[in-house]
Amino acid sequence: MIAAVARSAVYELLALPLAFTRVRTRLRVPRLLLREPVGAHSLSLVRCVIHSVLSGGVGLLGWFLAMLSVLVLVRGLAYPLVAADDFENSWGGPTLVGAWLVHAALGVLIAPVFVALIALSGRLQLRLTRTVLGGDRSWWAIPAAVVLAAAGGVFFVAWVHQI
Fold it and tell me: How many structural domains comprise the chain?
């Protein structure tokens, strides 16, 4: 199970560069990495462009979540080195040890959640590839990708404004 989650997460992170490759490569990677059959059906330039835009948008969200997971893990485990200037008023304070323990625990608990979200996005990428390029009739994959990419953009802008 953990190997399948890891493969889905890797596929999600590969989705952004794959969005700019040939269709043959986009279909071959899920077969090799996820061991999932994906075939081409009624390909056109419009379908390829739609897949590139949607897959790239969701892929950007995956990279943003990966960056956040590394950030929360590093900031949590290395709390005294990166943010211990006001530990008296931080979570776990008023001592440095308490603040460090709370931040480390939160980092260790939140990072796997981000990895799981990346893996779920990888499964959406597979469904999106099957729907747009493979002729699958999963109507929900395209609106889900649009909503997820838009929500990721809004989340990124909000995150940038708060730092």
Answer: 1
